[in-house]
Amino acid sequence: MLLSEVRHAMLIEGFDPSLGFLHQDYPGREALALDFMEIFRTGVDEFVFRWLADTPLDASSFFYRKNDGCRLSKAIRPHFYQAWAQHREAWPRYNRCGEPEHRLPIRELLLGQTASAHQYMKELEGIYAQSKKSS
Fold first, then answer.
1. Residue 84 belongs to domain with CATH number
2. pTM of the shown model
3. Confidence band (pLDDT; 50, 70, 90) for 84?
């Protein structure tokens, strides 16, 4: 669910989501999008753990397949998706001390991160161009 939003933000800034730094590139894998998702991993983990703790679940809430592992049942998935939709509209933004300052939609945070990365890459490009001229 987060991957599609990350991919969208990356495309807006002109990045190729398949060319990553941390995740290995191979056909069909959006390695750079996966790299950017790492920035938000703790927030996703926190949401999932909190949802699991706060939601009454039983054995019928899950199913298991050898190739897929343990998954939410069709009956419980809409509850998860609804909770995720609410959470992603009020994503916690933390200050430097690790305390929550305010909440923003995740798409705003993603667009900010990708815009910052784009600006940084442009600065590096300028430094590289200057060094090539002087050598």
1. 1.20.120.920
2. 0.76
3. very high
